[in-house]
Specification:
alpha+beta; 10 helices; globular; eight-stranded antiparallel β-sheet; 2 domains
Length: 386
């Protein structure tokens, strides 16, 4: 377990406000961040803040600094989990350079256009000698386009790994927005390319193991991620039978603890269920198709898994300067239900995790659910040697 102290180094500058007024909240962020030291800001926005006012205030307070971000279902602050914080992370200009592009509209999705734009962005973004390159993606979490977006970016950018999360809005699943260019955008995604002198390592883990219980999707509406039938009968009724509850007892908590898994070679990826409809259909938060074989997942100890997976080091044994985390809201629901929030927040603080709770996660070309995806940033090699 990492036991590093709670403050962050000069690599990043985190700032937090709990003010309910957007102007006050941004002023409080500005008081915590030195704009002369910042290359760009990442901002994760809680439910309830006036977004137009927030965007205008950010543009005013941080003039000349790129501000990226999205709406969130919760934040991971320097103190751990939070549900009402406006979180900003300033990335030091001494260690980072960035380039960005807005993908809008996200739906309908053009593979060719997005591929061409991503390749052009990468080609025009001058690479600093001996620095490392990666991509971050934030996507409208209600667009149902994250699967194809993640795959397209992975192919187009080739050897540049991309990590990210789907924008969210609490548990509303209604409108999720991307902040770019001084305003919030619906039906959009954002790609940020980073050059950094820091070493980094991608993280991606869940706490589910496959069971022997399998099912086949026998009727579905793939474009809407709707499952109509499983094993030739009502999707909700068959799923409820498999997890051992009544259809009327199906809930977000049941779905969080009993996800379905899709096998990809030797790996299983989580396909989370979002809700049950009155007609017995199930909405998922990832791609679905007729004929897909699903395996019921069974959770392991979420606290132990988190502690083990966050305990990462570089080749020299150094702990991360910080971890940028994209953590599924369904994981947080399970953590809250089991009253483990305080313990999880402690682990997040010790591991120096900052980020937000998502509607889905993107990890090296795959869109997943109920997964923690992150990027651990380590000291630059020349600094690590001293």
């Amino acid at each position: 377990m990492l036991t590093r102290p709670g403050h962050h180094s000069n690599v990043i500058s985190p700032a937090v406000s709990h003010a309910s007024d957007a102007a006050t909240a941004v002023a409080e962020l500005a008081a915590q961040i030195d704009p002369d030291e910042i290359c760009f800001l990442l901002v994760f926005v809680p439910v309830g803040l006036d977004r137009d006012r927030l965007a205008a205030e950010m543009l005013s307070q941080f003039a000349g600094i790129p501000v990226f971000g999205c709406t969130a279902a919760g934040q991971i602050t320097p103190q751990g989990y939070d549900s009402s914080a406006l979180l900003a992370i300033g990335f030091s200009r001494a260690h980072f350079r960035c380039a960005s592009m807005l993908i809008s509209p996200l739906k309908p999705f053009s593979i060719k256009d997005v591929s061409d734009q991503a390749r052009k962005l990468a080609g025009d973004f001058h690479k600093t000698a001996h620095w490392n390159r990666l991509g971050l993606v934030l996507a409208d979490g209600t667009s149902k386009q994250e699967d194809i977006l993640a795959a397209t970016l992975a192919t187009a950018l080739n050897d540049i790994p991309v990590f990210g999360g789907s924008a969210s809005d609490g548990l509303e699943f209604r409108e999720t927005l991307i902040l770019h260019g001084g305003r919030f955008h619906p039906n959009a995604a954002l790609l940020i390319l980073l050059d950094t002198d820091m070493e980094f390592r991608g993280l991606g883990f869940d706490h589910f193991q496959p069971t022997d219980t399998q099912m086949v999707v026998t009727d579905a509406v793939p474009d809407e991620r709707l499952v109509l039938e499983i094993n030739g009968t009502s999707a909700a009724r068959e799923y409820a039978r498999m997890v051992g509850c009544a259809v009327e007892d199906l809930s977000a908590e049941i779905f969080a603890e009993n996800p379905v898994l899709v096998r990809n070679n030797a790996l299983y990826h989580v396909r989370s269920i979002k809700e049950v409809h009155p007609d017995g259909t199930l909405s998922l938060i990832s791609a679905i198709d007729v004929g897909l074989l699903l395996t019921l997942g069974k959770g392991q100890e979420i606290l132990r898994t988190l502690a083990d997976e966050l305990c990462v080091t570089d080749a020299a044994g150094h702990a991360p300067e910080f971890i940028l985390g994209f953590d599924c809201i369904l994981r947080r629901l399970e953590i809250d239900q089991k009253q483990l929030g305080a313990e999880v927040s402690q682990l997040m603080r010790q591991a120096r995790v900052l980020g937000f709770n998502t509607y889905g996660e993107q990890h090296c070309g795959v869109h997943v659910n109920q997964t923690f995806v992150g990027v651990a940033f380590f000291p630059p090699q020349q600094r690590a040697l001293h």
